[in-house]
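User: Small ask, check this?
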Amino acid sequence: MTKPRLTEADRLRIEEGLRKRLTVYAIAKELGRPMRTIMREIKLRARASDKGAAYRVSNRCVHRMDCQKKRICAHCLYDESRHCRFCRLCNAHCDDFVEDACARLSQPPYVCNGCPQESKCVLRKRFYIHSAAQDDYRERLVETRRGANITEAEVLKFDATLYELTSQGQSIHAVMANHAGCFTVNEKTVYRYVNGGLLHTKRHDLPRACMLKPRQTKSVEHKVDAQCRIGRTYADYLRFIAQNPGLPVTEMDTVEGVKGGKVLLTLMFMPYGFMSAFLLPAKTSAHVTEAFATIRRRLTEDFGEAAALELFARLFPVILTDNGTEFSAPSRIETDSEGSRLTWLYYCDPNSAFQKAHVERNHELLRKILPKGTPYVEPTSFDSLTQADMNLAMSHVNGYLRESLKDRTPYDLFAAAFGTRVAELFGVRRIPADDIVLKPSLLGIVQKTKNLD
């Protein structure tokens, strides 16, 4: 018989046992659990800590005992006689820094709870705290059960057929009866997806459904990786930035023309204010992943493999985006085909677009060329546009000077940091200031008036 999951009380007893210096075997025996279960729980949910030691310098370098270096950081320049091993800042500036790790963290119990040397140790620590472990368990449990249990391929298989036939006035039941082989879910689930906005077919496409009062249900999300937000929340992002101060951030978003049509993937490189845009056939994670693969391929072709990896890391040290389903496969963006990490991706909190305000604000300039639409004017469709059109639009947007950049243009700042070749790889070229056009006429777009009859 399978035993129930660990409870908060069990996690409290694990923490108390570690503090009393009990072995993992003893804790497992006390809880009546396999030792492997307790080891896995401790390793998975222990939290890293930068806690130092009172009256001791937090120098974590393996060479700290015999290092003779001086004047590495600005703090040490004022005291030329002091060795840098006595400075708490030099680890972040020394090129020869190699972090020392405690052997206790690589073997049971894997944490510093109950360690007799904890008050004297200056190395990086890990602690098992039952309340934090319970919160992590609850977050993982909720994330893994949220959204639609269906793959993108399965959605695309029946979405187009369903939309085409319901637009002709057919019911969902009739479509599913005539095309049973296309559907991998039942009729009730399809209705849930329609009401949740997951499919191109909308509630107003179903005449009888419009006569009924909709139930109070939450929207349905489709995520490629149900656990994509675990360890990548906005709070995790703030901790990462605090540990890596000065690290530039690339903000990522998508811009829709009309529902179900082509979309734009926008990448805002801060602090340069430079934004690139990729025209995607659909708003899916597969197309977002392909866009990043295209960037890596272009860099490799122009600069070689080794230089391309270094340049990609400089362009995308950390990426901040929203919770859109098109970004629900972060590992495909963070790593290459061999599993090597290329960048770090984090998500804003739900309904908190202000947390990536730079890209949202820059969309206002883009919308001058590609209007969103009003109650009287139809929104601009991207279906007739090409990537060359978007390159032209972004060249004009990036050539527009900003007061926030001290009357400089994003193109000039980006080209100064990475070179004009990299800017051209993103399809952006220099546009003279007097030739900048931020109107639909740049792309020959004529807005259509809605028929209000």
